[in-house]
Design brief:
The chain has 16 helices and 21 strands. It is of the alpha+beta class. The chain folds into three domains: 100 residues, Rossmann fold (3-Layer(aba) Sandwich); 71 residues, Dna Ligase, domain 1, CATH 3.30.1490.20; 246 residues, D-amino Acid Aminotransferase, Chain A, domain 1, CATH 3.30.470. Bound molecules: adenosine-5'-diphosphate (2 copies) and magnesium ion (MG).
Length: 485
Amino acid sequence: MKDKIQKLLIANRGASAVRIIHTCRDRKIDAISVFSSADRMAHHVFMSESAIHIGEPPPAESYLNMENIISAAKKANADAIHPGWGFLAENHEFAQLVVDSGFIWVGPSPKVIELMGNKADAKKIANEANVPTVPGIDNVNSTEEVRKWMEKTKVKLPILIKAAAGGGGKGMERVDKIEDLEQAFEKVKSEGAKSFGDDTVITEKYIKNGKHIEVQIVADQHCNIVHLFDRECTIQRRNQKIIEEAPSSALDDNLREKLFATAIRLMRKIGYSSAGTVEFLFDQDTKEFYFLEVNTRLQVEHGITELITGRDIVGVMLDVALGKRLPFKQPDIKLNRYAMEVRINAEDPKTFNPSFGTITRLKFPQGPNVRVISGVYEGADIPPYYDSLLSLLMTAGQDRIGAIKAMEHALGKSIRIEGIKTIAPLLLSIIQHKLFLSGRFTTDFIEDNLTDLISTIKVTSGEDEALKIARYLAERSSLGPTVKM
Ligand code: ADP
Ligand code: ADP
Ligand code: MG
């Protein structure tokens, strides 16, 4: 086995690829990017040592095209492949192909990825490891089974129907009225088949007063497993996270230790290595927590854990992929700050419709308590083919209020993004909301308070389109190109 990665191919784009390039630069590793025809001028392409074209804009033809990515890795003479998050990051066939093609796979073993990719299998293993799971039934074939289960266990509505293979908040329907059950079941089944190639359905009790709390794990190939504390990702829209904080303000020391022990027990049972996250739902009424799933990859929100622990999680992933031991032990991991992250998505802050086009102005906050991972630059075009995440904005403070204050300043006064719409105004509105400040919010917070949240969004008078283009051209010609080729 090699003892150093010299060339790392990053099988991703946007903020995910840019984040991995940051660690490559720190470690003097050559970053090799891949790009679709729509991404010729993308930020990750300019930031890397070399970049290889892998196909046409639709993901299936480029960022999900396994053969083309492997060919690119061969052409570039890469040592290793990091999949980032999204795309092929949780595809066990790709992980296996990477290994079989003679490259180092920066992630857990293909077997573990496969095992945790199915929510029904994952829950079964969790139960075997004595990890509590949300009450429910797996491999549901008919709504009749759901009705019988509700009757027998006295579970009341709402319930949640989930695609066992689902992810990214997709393939999930809440049922509030029994007459909607049939339709929800059929919808999830067909969405599972269409989007994830598997129509297996599971059903769960809907945890109403729930918080999403997860544990960041890092593990090596020598059975050493360490947690890097917890994150709370309760602020979600359609089951997708948009604001995350670390650590959670909902746990006391006892519960926190219990949660960590539970997460480590599960990861030990499945023989985990690399970075990974164990997700839980925490019921604020009963103080019980339930296992949701294991994300067998780097997560979007890993950066706030890096802020509070001072560790480079991507760096650790590279080390353990080479077979090295974890560079620290559990007692070495200490918290020194509180951190939060908002996802700057290119969407209308009121309707959530995706926004595309050229970013005519981009200015990020700076300062000792700010961290930015940006997948874009001023002048970049946002193509319509990929998910809407542009950049990640993080702040830190001595306590929760300190981090929120820094974020309020960053979102309210410093950040400037023009030419496309982003959800930044909504994010500001959320962090100023009294329920958010109190810490007592649940995963339904946005749904329950949307009208209220939107009403405080100030509509800044949008520039006239023609003026926008003229200004853009003038700026470009006076400043010259904003990126080096
Ligand atoms: P995290 O758990 O890291 O917070 P998310 O669940 O928000 O991550 O997903 C991370 C990224 O991966 C997002 O950009 C999302 O769009 C994408 N993603 C997650 N699961 C899937 C999937 N099954 N298919 C396609 N994209 C996915
Ligand atoms: P994904 O693979 O799409 O990330 P998860 O199972 O992790 O799916 O769930 C995503 C989110 O959906 C959770 O963070 C939570 O907000 C919500 N959710 C999932 N299961 C339940 C449940 N049983 N009750 C209430 N909310 C749930
Ligand atoms: Mg999840």
